[in-house]
Amino acid sequence: MPSTVHTRGLHDPAVRKVLDRLFAEAVADEAKTPSVAGTLTAWKGEPSAEELRRISVDVAHDALLPVPPEVGTLLYQLVRATGATTVVEYGTSYGISTIHLAAAVRDNGGGLVIGSELNETKAKIAAANIAEAGLDAYAEVRVGDARETLPQVPGPIGLLLLDGWTPLFHGVLKLLEPKLTTGSVVVADDTNLFPEKLTDYFAHVRGADSGYTSTPLPLGDGLELSVRTA
User: Fold this and answer.
1) Buried-exposed string 73-101: b where 16+ CB fall within 10 A, e elsewhere
2) Radius of gyration of the chain (CA)
3) How far is CA 192 from CA 34, 175, 215, 219, in A?
4) Per CATH, which fold does 9-228 belong to?
5) Cβ contacts of residue 52 below 8 Å, gap of 6+?
6) More exposed terminus of the chain, fewer Cβ within 10 Å: N or C?
7) Which stretch of DSSP H or E encloses residue 36?
8) Total-model pTM
9) Band of the pLDDT at 4, cuts 50, 70, 90?
């Protein structure tokens, strides 16, 4: 008879307490999201690292910008289903998505979620939230430009979440692509907000010879779910 393995999942009391608090705070914070998103996506061209740091302080410094609960649950499910033990996240904010990912990595038997957050204050808050959820052994948040902080992550990457500044999705994916393998999952968030900023990204993951199978999902503000097939 197979042994029964108890996993705590998203119903772990410590995890649930932090997520419930953060989702309640996100509802109160919701009015900031359109303004922040509009400012960020209106930027022309690719910003320098210093320009990105200034944006993170002046524009998005105290906005939660969370994934909604259904997207968080999907992220947990994807990590559990794939057995991913190395997960990378572009755009950590206050750590809501990170907590979902780290809970899944823990329940897979161990591993690490590596996040990247431009704003040092946000990164500290995210780290505190992750620790309060009892998941600090399974996640770390790197402070700085993801184009500088993430290329050094160890591979293979089982799941990559793109949830930072939309116009950089394509560039961040290309930087990390050598560390993806067949079966790696890439999730791009907020794809319905400003799809014109994702033309290159969509062309890359949806192309016939892209090495991905990709499909949009009607969750939150839109997801693009891509699986590395070659």
Assistant:
1) ebbbebbbebebbbbbbbbbbbbbbbbbb
2) 17
3) 13, 23, 13, 10
4) Rossmann fold (3.40.50)
5) 118, 145, 165
6) N
7) helix 33-41
8) 0.86
9) very low
Residues 6 or more apart in contact with residue 64 via CB below 8 angstroms: 22, 25, 26, 29, 32, 93, 94, 96
Residue pointed to by tokens 């993806």: 180
CB 76 within 8 A of CB 9: yes
Residue in the block written with tokens 């930027």: 43
Number of CB atoms found within 10 A of residue 137's CB: 13
Residue 1 confidence class, pLDDT cut points 50, 70, 90: very low
Which has the higher per-residue pLDDT, 130 or 66? 130
What is the Cα–Cα distance from 186 to 88, expressed in whole angstroms? 10
The yes-or-no verdict on residue 218 having pLDDT over 50 is yes
User: Residue 223 pairs with which residues in a beta bridge?
Assistant: 189, 217
Confidence check: pLDDT of 120 > 90 = no
Segment 3-15 shows an average pLDDT of 76
pLDDT for the residue numbered 56: 57
Q: To which residue do tokens 């809970």 refer?
A: 103
Cα separation, 31 vs 184, in Å, equals 35
Kindly give, in sequence order, each residue whose CB lies less than 8 Å from that of residue 106, ignoring residues fewer than 6 positions away: 8, 135, 137, 138
What is the C-alpha to C-alpha distance for residues 123 and 84, in angstroms, rounded to an integer? 23
Q: Please state whether the peptide bond connecting residue 156 to the residue before it is cis, i.e. omega within 30 degrees of 0.
A: yes
